[in-house]
Amino acid sequence: MTTITPKILLQAYAVGIFPMAETAEDSALYWVEPEERGIIPLRGLRVSHSLRKQVRRQTFEVRVDSAFSEVIDSCAAKTKTRKLTWINTRIRTLYNQLHKMGHCHSVECWRDGKLVGGLYGVRIGAAFFGESMFSRETDASKVALVHLVARLNAGGFRLLDAQFMNPHLKTLGAIVISKADYKELLPSALIAPADFHRFTQDDDPARVLELAGSG
């Protein structure tokens, strides 16, 4: 069996597949290629009135890549409402390696010096592959997503892959496309230039909402 390395992982994303585990306790990984793909159109994020208020009030301090390991550990943790997760030790190790290589990023929400929500994903070219998100306070992960979309639009990204559709993502504007349509979108996004760090205005809620399409 081929050992999965960060290089192999990036090659897999580039052809539309990604790894998962059955549970966090299972050391095995398997490759996934959904027949239907969830994506969030970068000009189609749906931001509710209450979420806009959260962003404007700056309820959370938003940081990028300041606590990547803690974000992925939080996404892997069981909660009262999430009894099982698919993020095992091998996945945490691989994505921490990708982070050190500059191919994996976290967007984090902090309050009173504590990490209370966030998300992480993989970046190749102008494509961002969202992996997981978590919240310890109401709307924390949603605020992180608004800031992510603003950052991707500012940086010239073309694709925000959400992998699977679920009711939560649907409320935020995610749509489903076929595997064939996804594979038409992916190649041009992979080779297009984009800059994840171009955006430096996470402390400007008006600009964040404008770039996220909800100004």
- Uncertain regions spanning at least 5 consecutive residues: none
The largest pleated sheet is described as: 7 strands, mixed
Number of strands: 9
Whole-angstrom Rg = 16 Å
User: What would you say the CATH architecture is?
Assistant: 3-Layer(aba) Sandwich
Q: Which structural class matches the secondary elements?
A: alpha+beta
Number of domains: 1
CATH superfamily: Leucyl/phenylalanyl-tRNA-protein transferase, C-terminal domain
Q: Sketch the topology as an H/E string, one letter per element.
A: HEEEHEHHEEEHEHEHH
Helicity range: 25-40%
Q: What's the overall geometry?
A: globular
How would you state the average pLDDT, rounded? 93
CATH fold category name: Aminopeptidase
Number of helices: 8
* Residues in β-strands, percent: 15-25%
**Roughly how many Å apart are the termini?**
50 Å
CATH class: Alpha Beta
* Side-by-side strand order of the widest sheet: 4-5-6-7-8-3-9
Please, could you describe this protein's structure?
The chain has helices at about 5-15, 50-55, 70-75, 90-100, 140-155, 165-170, 180-190, 205-210, and strands at about 20, 30, 35-40, 60-65, 105-110, 115-125, 125-135, 160-165, 175-180. The mean pLDDT is about 95. The protein has one domain (about 5-210): Leucyl/phenylalanyl-tRNA-protein transferase, C-terminal domain (Aminopeptidase, 3-Layer(aba) Sandwich), CATH 3.40.630. The strands form 2 sheets. It has a 7-stranded mixed β-sheet, sandwiched between helices. A two-stranded antiparallel ribbon has the order 1-2. The radius of gyration is 16 Å and the shape is globular. A hairpin with a 2-residue loop joins strand 6 (about 115-125) and strand 7. It contains 8 helices and 9 strands. Helix 2 packs antiparallel against helix 8 (about 205-210). Helix content is about 35%, strand content about 25%. The protein is α+β, with helices and mostly antiparallel strands. The termini are far apart.
